[in-house]
Structures are given as structure tokens and as C-alpha cells.
Amino acid sequence: QVQFVESGGGLVQPGGSLRLSCAASGSVFRFSIYAMGWYRQAPGKQRELVASITSGGSTNYASAVKGRFTISRDNAKNTVYLQMNVLKPEDTAVYYCNFRDGSAAWGQGTQVTVSS
């Protein structure tokens, strides 16, 4: 069973940057073959997919973050990253990683708060 551990969140001022990391682990788990996604859930809202990356490295972004966020992966480290630039208050949320289809158990997430 795969487990995801997210890290790198924090409090940042509008216009600032953060880099999130998500380490995947589990027995008989080949991280490299899976499409991965970063999701977020703001208070009172549903969880949404903000960025995804295929096994081949193709990426896709929600319109709200396109041009500001960059997803990447390091298959040797079983890790997926989310570089977030020009952060806005509306980016405030708990951020999670999962398979692109969201089919694995959710981790604890990492809180991102954008505020002055």
C-alpha cells in the first residue's frame, strides 16, 4: 500500500514562493509508472486538482495556477515537487499529492497560507 508524505508548506506573503515535496513509499510500488497530481483543499471547498505530471513528464495545470506553479518529479527519489511562485491569498489551502486519479489513501497534506 502506497503512502504519501507532503512537506514544504508554510506562511508566505503575497507574491512569494514555496516549494512543496511529496515522498511516496510502499512495498511493490513502482513510482515511475504512475501519473501524479498535486491537489489542494481550501476551507469550505472541495479538494481540487491543481497540477499533474505523467510518467513521461508531461504536465497539466488548472487555469488558476497556470504560469505560476510548476510540477516536477524525481523517480529515483520517489518524489514529486510543486514549485509555487507569485503566490496569492486564494492559494491558501492544504496541499496533497496522490496519483493523478486520486485513488490512493490521502496523506496529511501540508498547509500553505498566503497572507500579509
Notes on the protein architecture:
With 116 residues, this protein is an all-beta fold. It is built from no helices and 10 strands. The strands form 2 sheets. Strands 2-10-9-4-5-6 form a 6-stranded mixed sheet, with no helix packed on it. Strands 1-3-8-7 form a 4-stranded antiparallel sheet, with no helix packed on it. A hairpin with a 4-residue loop joins strand 7 (69-74) and strand 8. The mean pLDDT is 95.
Chart the SSEs and their pairings.
Elements: E1 3-7, E2 10-12, E3 18-25, E4 36-41, E5 48-53, E6 59-61, E7 69-74, E8 79-84, E9 93-99, E10 110-114
Write a short abstract of this structure.
The chain has 116 residues and is mainly beta. Helices cover 0% and strands 47% of the residues.
Distinct helical segment count: 0
Spans where pLDDT lies below 50 across 5 or more residues? none
> Could you tell me the strand content as a percent range?
over 45%
Q: Strand order, biggest sheet? A: 2-10-9-4-5-6
Tell me roughly what share of residues is in helical segments. under 10%
Helices and strands, in N-to-C order?
Answer: EEEEEEEEEE
**Tertiary shape:** globular
Structural class, judged by helices and strands?
Answer: mainly beta
Question: What is the rounded distance between the termini?
Answer: 40 Å
Query: What does the average pLDDT come to?
Result: 95
Radius of gyration: 13 Å
- Main pleated sheet: 6 strands, mixed
Count the E strands.
10
